[in-house]
Amino acid sequence: MFSLKFGGTSMGNSEAISQTAQIIISHPEPNKVVTVSAMSGVTNLLISAANCATETNKICYKNYLQEIQDKHLTALKKLVNNTDLYRTGEEFITKKISGLSGFLHALTIIGEVSPRSNDEIVSLGEILSAKLLSLHLQDLGEKSDFINLENIVSKMFDKDHTEANKEFFECFAHKLEKLLTPLLEKNITPICTGFFGKIPGGIVATVGRGYSDFTAALIGKACNAKEIQIWTDVNGILSTDPRIVPEAHVIEELSFDEATELANLGAKVIHPQTIWPAVKNNILVRIKNTMSPLDAGTAITKEGKLSTHSFKSITIQKDITIITVRSTTMTESGVLGELFQEFANHKVSIDLVSTSESSISVTIQNENKNKNLQQLITQLEKKFIVNRENNNTIIAIIGNEMRENIGVAGRFLSALSDHKINVRMISQGANQSNISAVISQKDSKNAVQAVHKKFFRI
């Protein structure tokens, strides 16, 4: 069995959905489960509709819903020729949009969107796209069934973070197996929503907007898949962002550890949560391009394969803030623990850490999303000297090759200094597979190009 996930670009419009259907039909594995994201742009439209319902112009949400309905009905008309199937799809789409309209009307009275309400709204995009794809496959004569996964979750989280809820996911995987196995035994291809139920704290807030990757990985774990395939709009994971370096090349194979580092350090191709279900069950993950299905893509395996370069990839994270805390008591017992506890108390996540005898610097992502940051700084200033620096970027080089290659860090910093790029912080991962440097955001593009050229000789 293969678990296939198709993202927003693969479901972008009727032509993309038709291409996705052909990949499913021609796939060499007879047993497969498909997970889909919403059509391109639909999630943003749904979020805009929700915002409208709680703002001054409360009825503007109707315009967004009409746009969403028209988009799906237009696609349906192009994808489904059978009259009965078309009527089924038309009724399904209009009924779902009408239901959301009533929900948003209620929100105009409440005046706010809770995380759970936000999930209810955002999930509609995947429900509609999964139904479209299933109907299109049936119209082509394929045995397919639409599966709305939000209906199978009965046991809720007891905490907000997935890492603390492995027991939940074991239960969820068992439910998936019971739901999907009978369909696979009948050679029916399930087309599943990426959304898998209402979670305290909200699935978007807990897992992130790319949670459909995670769903596909959980399905792979539940059904003992040979492979989890993430279909997107690039040929695999690249050596860096091709918008910055057009000559960036596809990485043939990564280890689970390397892929995790890439996902957590800014690579957008794969969601960080996708990896752990695959790691636990040693399931190969492959990134493939919907528009070039014959390309091999990038394989993610337990051990990976070493490349001929000093490392595999360069990634960047923008909108980074550095918080530096200074104190003459920094090395005293318990001070660092107290400091980090304040970050935890204010729910401000830390990325990189750099220490000295009298100070510690940490980085956090996107200051605008850390609404508690100023409260945290105010609290810290009661005991420490605190400095905040905005508009920074983390540039990271990633690859297990660094464990065996001498002088990579020196060459990395040399590439930056040769282009007069100042490094504010530097950190090496404990697993020795990544080195990260914090630089000014204005130097981001120049830094990536300089490092890529020095190590990959373009």
What features would you describe in this structure?
- The protein is α/β, with parallel strands linked by helices and 458 residues long.
- It has a domain at 2-232: Acetylglutamate kinase-like (Carbamate kinase).
- It is built from 14 helices and 14 strands.
- It has helices spanning 14-26, 42-53, 61-79, 83-110, 115-139, 166-185, 203-206, 211-222, 256-264, 275-281, 335-345, 373-380, 408-418, 444-456, and strands at 2-6, 32-36, 144-147, 189-193, 227-232, 253-255, 284-289, 298-301, 313-326, 353-355, 359-365, 385-398, 423-428, 434-440.
- Strands 3-4-2-1-5-7-8-6 form an 8-stranded mixed beta sheet, with helices on both faces.
- Mean pLDDT is 88; it is low at 154-164.
Write the layout of secondary structure elements.
Layout: E1 2-6, H1 14-26, E2 32-36, H2 42-53, H3 61-79, H4 83-110, H5 115-139, E3 144-147, H6 166-185, E4 189-193, H7 203-206, H8 211-222, E5 227-232, E6 253-255, H9 256-264, H10 275-281, E7 284-289, E8 298-301, E9 313-326, H11 335-345, E10 353-355, E11 359-365, H12 373-380, E12 385-398, H13 408-418, E13 423-428, E14 434-440, H14 444-456
Parallel strand pairs: 1-2, 1-5, 2-4, 3-4, 5-7, 6-8
Antiparallel strand pairs: 7-8, 9-11, 9-12, 10-11, 12-14, 13-14
Brief description of this entry?
Helices cover 42% and strands 19% of the residues.
Average predicted confidence as pLDDT: 88
Distance between the termini: 40 Å
Strand order of the largest sheet: 3-4-2-1-5-7-8-6
CATH homologous superfamily classification of the domain at 2-232:
Acetylglutamate kinase-like
The residue ranges in which pLDDT falls below 50 over 5 or more consecutive positions are 154-164
Query: Strand content of the residues, in percent?
Result: 15-25%
For the record, the CATH class of the domain at 2-232 is Alpha Beta
CATH architecture of the domain at 2-232: 3-Layer(aba) Sandwich
The proportion of residues forming helix, as a percent range, comes to: 40-55%
The CATH topology name of the domain at 2-232 reads: Carbamate kinase
